[in-house]
Amino acid sequence: MTSPSLKRSLACLWWVLMAFLYLPLAVVVLFSFNSINSSALFESFSLRWYERLWGNEQIMASLGHSLVLAIISSVTAVVIGTLMGYGLYRHRARRLGWLIVLIYLPIVMPDIVFGISNMTFFVRISSLTGWLSPGLGTMVLSHVTFQIPFVALIVYSRFVGLDATLFDAAKDLYASPFDRARHFIVPSIKPALVSAFFLSFTLSIDDFVISFFTAGPESSTLPIYIWGAIRKGVTPEINAIASLMIAAVAVAAVISLAFTRSKGSDASR
Amino acid sequence: MKRGITETLANESTARKASSITLEGVEKSFSREAIALDGVDLTIKAGEFFTLLGPSGCGKTTLLRILAGLDTPNAGVVSIGGVDVTAVPPHKRSVNTVFQSYALFPHLSVEDNIGFGLKMQGVDKAERTRRVREMAEFIKLSPLLSRRIHQLSGGQRQRIALARALVCEPDVLLLDEPLSALDAGLRGQLQVELQRIQRRLGMTFVFVTHDQQEAMVMSDRIAVLNDGKIQQLDTPRAVFERPANAFVARFMGHSNLLEIKRRGADRLDTAIGPLTLPADAEHMNDGDLVLIRPETIELGDDALGQPNRFDATVVESFYRGSHFEYRLQVEDVALTAFSSNQGQKLFAADDRVPISISPSDLMTVRGEGG
């Protein structure tokens, strides 16, 4: 049995861990509301740094790039990843376990390797054909590539959770292949699709390394801007951007999680 | 306009269209070792309650899936209502299935589940709503229409699955062990109800089960399947009382089977001793089995002075209300006997009891080899 003192120290450790994880974030958020330009002294509450952000064209442009990149890549990845997840599910009897390894690879590969290899590839293609010169297009391609496995796995596990007889029931009840997709498959996996979209969105907004290697001169995203800006020191402006990103990512992650959870409730019998 | 099911029910003299089914040389294997159907020829009459009975892995579910179009046979022809449907995909067959797991769509309400087939057939919304409501009324589901599937009990799901299939008014209704997940009381009730629905609609029902009691209660005819082949196809009474071979006899629950060791002019040698032959015994041969039904064994004083008399020891006795059940031992052979309760004494374990079997109650069953 665990002694009361051990229990207390474990509880203590929990709070220490939480503080370690969230205190730095809290400090960033706090100082984004600082009225003076200091990262040591908090004077009074103010929104001046947020107002400053609004007026900064470079930041607004990067924010735009980030959002466009995240939305386009997530939508594309959800479409392709869903088809992939469905394919894996339909052919699960053929023991395609080894394919999963291929799918996992982009997930476990270090971002820097992934980013550099993408960059090298795009540069070579570009020098040969003139296509795929670095910019938003190449960034979308790279992001879609690393988002697909996440989408495929979420969708696949949703399919595995469905009663396989439902596919037979849909056929038996006069649904043509198109009707099956529209009236059965898509509605059945909708929570997984929403969850996959927001997870992809979060991954894309977050990403610095891969974007850094595949971006062009006119397509820097928010993380790339921040990286450039902090070489001149951390300003309260950076704190404000960071706080907004924390909020955006947290919202997307919560939505993603909520929809992942909801599969339990309506797939259960 | 198509007649609604409840209109049909209101006017029982109206015969609904029903379709016959013919299978010719249907074969299906999933791999070289796994042969599910080994050349099945079968005719199911229009409007019949037909049961495919057999142990798990006998091919009965595969046969049902071939009728539904969910599996394609490797060889053979499937016709429904005289039309070859072998290559017709499931969504273009006027056949609906009640699945063992019910397979109700979790993302839809009860009403939308029942209406799914009609919607896919392009029935407009007003007509669909009318027919779904009508069906819900008929199957006593009306209060549940707006519920979600996960809020319902097994019995309710079963009814919805049935309603969803029936509302499409198919030529043939297929039922894949639809009652196996329910408790005994509910199962008995739904057996009666299913039979009633089938009689009133006059629809062709093909029912799959591994429960011989269920098959006997409900069916017009039964096909007993084993190893992908039809072992016997007949009425419930014929299948039970005149099983075609030892497999059918055992599967129908007969336990008193004795091998004929040698046949003489007027008697048979068996493990319990010599048996006097019935008058029409010409088909009893060496290697066949003699079947003694438990209820045909006379016990005690009734057995005295009768032919085929043996001395038995009671191993166990059970009081079953309407009848007594005995596990007997004659020589080294175990026999089961039922005697109907007419107020007589219930023998106890270790009692020595005379038994007799009338020659006319002896039946032959072809041996496992034949």
Automatic annotation (TrEMBL), chain A:
InterPro entries cross-referenced by the UniProt entry: Bact_Polyamine_Transport, MetI-like, MetI-like_sf
UniProt-annotated location(s): Cell membrane
Alphabetical list of SUPFAM superfamilies matching this protein: MetI-like
One Pfam family, short name: BPD_transp_1
PROSITE patterns: ABC_TM1
Residue spans crossing the bilayer: 12-33, 67-89, 96-116, 136-156, 192-213, 240-259
Keyword Transmembrane helix: yes
Membrane topology: Multi-pass membrane protein
Main location: membrane
Residue ranges of domain ABC transmembrane type-1 in the record: 63-259
Stretches of the chain forming a coiled coil according to its record: none
Protein keywords: Cell membrane, Membrane, Transmembrane, Transmembrane helix, Transport
Record PANTHER family: PUTRESCINE TRANSPORT SYSTEM PERMEASE PROTEIN POTI
Protein family: Belongs to the binding-protein-dependent transport system permease family. CysTW subfamily.
Name the record gives this protein: ABC transporter permease
Annotated organism of origin: Larsenimonas suaedae
Lineage: Bacteria, Pseudomonadati, Pseudomonadota, Gammaproteobacteria, Oceanospirillales
